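Q: How would the structure tokens look for this protein?
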Amino acid sequence: MATAADISTKPKETEGSGCVPAVAVENLHKTFGTNTVLNGINLRVNQGDTLAVLGRSGTGKSVLLRLIIGLIPPDSGSIHIQGKNIAELSVDELGKAREKVGFLFQHAALYDSLTVAENVAFPLKHHRRKMPKSERNDRVQRLLTEVGMEDSLNKMPSNISGGMQKRVGLARALALAPEILLLDEPTAGLDPISSREIDDLILKLQSERHTASVVVTHDLFSAKTISNRLALLNQGNVIIEGTFEELQKSDDQFIRDFLQHP
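A: Here is the predicted structure in token form.
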């Protein structure tokens, strides 16, 4: 278990792994005006691992994901994707790095004017322009089957439930066969049954695809279910990182309160 004192230093290599992490965040700072959102955090995720990032609202969890994908720049610090510092990449190189990262937005962010199938096909049309239409259609069909939405290809997003929209959003995030997944509140706004179905789906995909995943969530049950490590943010800092069992052993009052009332 890593405490705040440990996490203030540069992340260490996972013991015995000797591998380049899929995602490495080092001494990352981000402020908006006078609001310090991230205050020098360090995190790493190896291929095949899932890190759940927890914290109260407004603690910078979603900002962290947008920093990792390069949608907003950090004030200082570095973000490495498979060993490459994204701040040092050209526009073309950054584009190629992003193709390795699938992003599930908090509210699925489907295009209202496109069908379910067209939403999933959207990344392929833009990043795999030479892919034959028949091959693209086959991939869309496979992805929607993988997430249990094969019967909804021609439906509009407004005609499916929130849980179904999350499934379609996940299929779209997988369209380019990413090696890294960033999931922003995958179970937010869903009923308990739909939430557990999304958890089961994420576990299935992780097992089959061996992706590295960073999951931002308020859902502690989901975090315990789908991740092998958890990091808790508070006031811009990672105050603890470890397994759920390690977090439970902490004597820190904030950590104990959060685990009881997330």
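Residues 51 and 171 are 20 Å apart (CA to CA).

The domain at 1-98+214-262 is CATH 3.40.50.300 (Rossmann fold).

Upvote if useful.
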